[in-house]
Specification:
Length: 159
């Protein structure tokens, strides 16, 4: 509860742009209610490993995600703009080594946020991913192509 409150209350202040007493009291009450109501739910701080390696992995993960986001946008744009429209859609089954719920959730969302892929289902160690331009239907090959890069950082951050 406290970590979520520690994020929400300063955000409230920044978004309101005021340190007036009524704004602070309203923000305090609202963020406490939200933080208390969110107990047991997943937040990015749930299961976060507070270690130097994890703290270093966070910016590296964000940079890797941005790089993959740009690459996948360019690849998908090339497919859409191509007169042949070289699509090969399909659903592939990929495996994750991540054990934490938050790590798996962030992996699934990272895959979904990169154009051309969409996580359809997350079941235990397996993710079912719709791939617009399927390069392989082999589970190991697809795992290496789609999951491994994100997983390398998320494993350090969340386990």
């Amino acid at each position: 509860m406290l970590p979520l409150f520690a994020i929400l209350f300063p955000l409230w202040i920044v978004l309101n742009g005021s340190l007036a007493t009524d704004v602070l009291i309203t923000g305090l009450i609202a963020t406490l209610v939200i933080a208390a109501g969110s107990r047991g739910s997943l937040s990015p701080l749930t299961e976060f490993r507070v270690t130097p390696a994890a703290l270093w992995a966070v910016p590296r993960y964000l940079l890797y995600f941005l790089k993959e986001l740009v690459k996948s946008n360019l690849r998908l744009a090339a497919v859409v703009l191509s007169p042949e429209l070289p699509l090969n859609p399909g659903i592939v089954k990929v495996r994750t080594r991540l054990k934490s719920r938050m790590g798996r959730l962030l992996l699934a969302n990272s895959i979904t946020l990169t154009p051309g892929t969409l996580t359809v289902e997350l079941q235990d160690d397996w993710l079912y991913v719709h791939w617009v331009r399927m390069e392989t239907d082999d589970s190991e090959g697809a795992t290496a192509r789609i999951v491994a890069g994100f997983e390398r950082y998320l494993e350090v951050i969340y386990g």
